[in-house]
Design a protein that fits this description.
The protein is mainly α. 80% of the residues lie in helices and 0% in strands.
């Protein structure tokens, strides 16, 4: 287990080195006058940190993102579980969310702007329409594919309908539901940036578009890099939380003192 853990970390480090090394090399060729090197981007990143640009921009970006993810998580899990438990709800809801997952939802953004304006509401809705289909369908499949033997066991022990739902189906479905929440959060980040680029340039979207307009490409890439780092860090946190809650045996290594290594 320890060797596997160290091996996985080594591979992750090598992947970072390859990606950033390739970025630096491509910037030095250069592949485009508008493509800075990795070191130039990092220098611009620290400049944006030092002058407070990130600290001014991120509250505007995180507000619709947080609201959208909270709404999507609550409604998405509720709808998915309901569809998994109720055949009529499945017939009614599953086609809608399957279409939403496969359709280019960014095309709906102009319609949301026409209906709700260019304020916070539209941006929250963009996050929701990006995140909810993933959460709903994962929750639905998790509940729908609960092993039949477990439900039969609950019935044989005279469990009520609610006992079977809350003590068997939901605990069994929880790991897959949590995976859906993690994937939905990833889609929510995409929705938050799309809303800032296509509705009103605020937050990190404003940093990206402004620096692009004045040809400050290192700062533009630094802003893009910052939101990628934040998204990766948040998803890594959710993955570790998932392992802690549902797969604790993979979180840490406990050597067997009775066996010689």
């Amino acid at each position: 287990m320890v060797n596997f853990f160290l091996h996985s970390r080594t591979l992750k480090l090598l992947s970072f080195i390859l990606v950033f090394g390739g970025w630096e090399y491509a910037g030095r060729i250069p592949v485009s006058p508008a493509f800075p090197t990795f070191l130039q981007t990092m220098e611009a990143f620290w400049q944006l940190m030092a002058d407070g640009s990130f600290f001014k921009s991120y509250p505007e970006t995180l507000k619709p993102l947080a609201l959208g993810l909270i709404i999507s998580g609550f409604l998405g899990v509720s709808c998915g579980v309901w569809m998994g438990l109720n055949r009529k709800a499945e017939w009614f809801g599953s086609p809608v969310f399957i279409v939403m997952q496969s359709a280019p939802l960014a095309a709906l953004i102009p319609l949301l702007v026409m209906a709700y304006g260019i304020g916070l509401t539209s941006k929250v809705l963009v996050v929701c329409i990006m995140a909810m289909p993933v959460i709903v369908l994962n929750s639905f499949n998790a509940v729908k594919h609960t092993p039949y033997a477990l439900k039969e066991m609950g019935t044989s022990f005279l469990g009520t309908k609610w006992d079977i739902i809350f003590k068997i189906i939901l605990p069994s479905a929880s790991p897959v539901i949590f995976v859906g929440l993690r994937l939905g959060a990833s889609a929510g980040f995409i929705g938050a940036i799309l809303s800032e680029l296509l509705i009103t340039p605020t937050g990190i979207g404003d940093l990206i578009t402004y620096n692009q307009s004045i040809a400050e490409y290192p700062k533009m890439y630094a802003a893009i890099f910052s939101i990628i780092v934040l998204a990766v860090a948040f998803l890594e946190f959710l993955e570790r939380l998932e392992h802690t809650l549902f797969r604790p045996d993979t979180c840490r290594y406990r050597p067997n003192k009775g066996v010689n290594s």
